[in-house]
Amino acid sequence: MEKGNGCCSIMASSATITFFLVGITLVMCRVLYAMYRSSKPLRKRAPQPVSTLIVLGSGGHTAEMLNLLSELQRDRFSPRIYIAAATDNMSLQKARLFENSLADENGVGAVKTAQFMQIYRSREVGQSYVTSVWTTLLAIVHALQLMIKIRPQVILCNGPGTCIPLCAIAFLFKVLGIRWSSIFYVESIARVKRLSLSGLLLYKLRIADELFVQWPQLQRKYPRARYVGCLM
Predict the structure, then answer these.
(1) Which residues pair with 31 in a beta bridge?
(2) Which neighbouring-strand residues pair with 117?
(3) How far is residue 48 CA from its own chain's centroid?
(4) pLDDT tens string 184-223
(5) DSSP secondary structure code for residue 88 in this structure
(6) Run of H or E residues at 103
(7) If DSSP states are collapsed to H, E and C, what string results for 148-186?
């Protein structure tokens, strides 16, 4: 009897381990597939508007992003959802002014084509690393809530740290098959010799579908990046 119970226990343990290994294998295959797809040129699609999440940031990031948007076919990237750190009111003010200027040009209400949101920052300047653990978890949860609500088709970012949890969750959605958001990262023109931490993470982890740099030496150092020249 005891021998029979022992055999059943061993079989149950073996089955559990097998299911666990199969599950891990499937997840890894899906992660590798998402990384593979993200590193390939995007497929050409019909020219229909795509909902676009635009990540803003202080320290010149917002000015560069708005300059970039002024060069794009804005009717192609619509509706536009601007997002900035909860403590960064200046960036959203600039984005509203930008959208209002477009509304004046086109006669279309900015409210119909743009939304403005804020996200908790993972770590404030000068904040201790101990307390930043809690704020980082809070920022991730908030980013998850926003991404579930927005589920953009395109994400545009250029360096602020607030883009990392958003891009990471977008990549998770790819792995889970929830939503395939194309992530376009444009490195700041101030980055001449090396990528910023945000850019490096998205490059090394193959999260970004396209990573653009504005200096040729950066493209030589990071061959999967695409050199587009100065966008200012």
Answers:
(1) none
(2) 83
(3) 21
(4) 999 999 999 999 989 999 999 999 999 999 999 999 999 9
(5) -
(6) helix 89-106
(7) HHHCCCEEEECCCCCHHHHHHHHHHHHHHCCCCCEEEEE
Which residue shows structure tokens 């708005």? Answer: 66
Count, residues in the chain: 232
| Residue whose pair of structure tokens reads 């609500």 in the numeric block | 149
> What token pair was written down for 230?
């100065």
Strands (E), 153-207: 154-157, 182-186
Binned at pLDDT 50, 70 and 90, residue 137 comes out as confident
Handedness of CA 24, 30, 33, 39 (dihedral sign): negative
Instruction: Tell me which residue of 115, 127, 52 sits closest to 87, measured CA to CA.
Output: 127
Residue 7 in tokens: 């055999």
- pLDDT tens column, 56-68: 998 789 999 999 9
d(CA 47, CA 183): 18
Tokens of 194: 């090396």
Report pTM.
0.81
Taking the C-alpha atoms of residue 187 and residue 213, their distance in angstroms, rounded to an integer, is 5
- Per the CB < 8 A criterion, the answer to whether 118 and 108 are in contact is no
What is each CA distance from 86 to 91, 110, 120, 136, in whole angstroms? 10, 22, 5, 13
Per DSSP, helices labelled H in the chain are: 2-38, 61-71, 89-106, 110-113, 129-150, 163-176, 197-204, 216-221
